[in-house]
UniProtKB/TrEMBL annotation:
Stretches assigned to the HTH cro/C1-type domain: 12-65
Pfam families tied to this protein: HTH_3 (PF01381)
Record protein name field: Helix-turn-helix transcriptional regulator
Organism: Halomonas citrativorans
Lineage: superkingdom: Bacteria
Xref: SMART domains: HTH_XRE
InterPro entries reported in the protein's UniProt record: Cro/C1-type_HTH, Lambda_DNA-bd_dom_sf
Length: 292
């Protein structure tokens, strides 16, 4: 039962971060201290009426907060935080997340991603302090996810789309088309470096990492399968972190429903079976994507 309480606390933290409302204001609105709010996030069980107040303040349904059925998340911050929480207990990840699965990217990718996310904002939001804070929060959660991945080293199966990699290299690692030509050239080099890094992973075959390259059409939305000791979890997302990223619009979903797990596992097996692997994947990338 305590594990269920911890799950509620994890969701509470994720939705609190995504709301961009200071914790002291949330605590005041639900009639508790900030310390009590943090205790709830760590697994302490609040009263039912307190949970109802929390759901109202955070604009999230009680069923989602309790983890009944499907979790719906319209905030990229909330979604990335839930990924971080889930990955802590994950033994294996299968990801179809383009153009390159974030957890497999280089430190240079993180250095540039912050600028790319801010470039992707509409002009009227590029100087909005609240919006810029959201981007900073996303970056903080992403860095924590990568640190956790490097520490725990779960198995990782990455499915990549050849067309998405081709677009990534063609556009460069950019957040908008309206950039200086010299900057675009630098970002194209960065994109190529990331693809070269993936080639290195395919060549070196580090323990637990598998990469498949699909030339065929891929699903439009990304998904990840997290295999955990007591359950498997599926996350689907409209949010993207590559060229022309989207961290503002859409609704992500998380569920452990057996049917959803089976369907996504079947799709993963099908895509993996049809993917190029090893030297065939490397040859295709060098001949069709990393061309000058």
């Amino acid at each position: 039962m305590s594990e269920k309480f911890n799950d509620i606390g994890d969701r509470l933290r994720a939705f609190r971060l995504g709301s961009n409302i200071p914790p002291e204001i949330i605590a005041d609105k639900i009639g508790v201290s900030r310390a009590a709010l943090y205790r709830y996030e760590k697994g302490a069980l609040p009263k039912l009426e307190t949970l109802e107040k929390i759901s109202e303040v955070l604009s999230v349904s009680m069923t989602t907060l309790l983890g009944v059925g499907v979790e719906y998340l319209s905030s990229c911050v909330s979604f990335m935080e839930r990924m971080r929480q889930i990955e802590v207990e994950t033994r294996h990840i299968s990801a179809m997340f383009g153009p390159i699965a974030y957890l497999l990217t280089t430190p240079q990718y993180d250095e540039v991603l912050n600028d790319v996310l801010k470039e992707s904002l509409p002009d009227d939001l590029k100087k909005c302090s609240e919006t810029l804070k959201v981007v900073d929060n996303i970056m903080n959660v992403l860095r924590e996810r990568k640190r956790n991945y490097m520490l725990k080293k779960p198995g990782f199966l990455s499915l990549m789309s050849a067309s998405e990699l081709q677009r990534f290299v063609g556009n460069g690692f950019v957040g908008t088309y309206n950039l200086d030509n010299q900057l675009v050239k630098k970002r194209i080099v960065i994109a190529k470096n990331e693809v070269e890094h993936i080639i290195g992973l395919i060549e070196d075959q580090p323990i637990g990492v598998q990469v498949g390259l699909l030339k065929d059409t891929m699903p439009n939305s990304s998904f990840q399968i997290f295999k955990q000791p007591k359950r498997d979890t599926i996350a689907t997302s409209p949010f993207t972190l590559g060229d022309l990223p989207n961290v503002r619009l859409g609704v992500a979903m998380i569920t452990s429903a057996p049917e959803a797990v089976k369907l996504h596992t079947d799709i993963t097996s099908d895509i993996w079976g049809r993917s190029l692997k090893g030297t065939k994947a490397i040859d295709y990338i060098r001949k069709n994507i990393l061309i000058d």
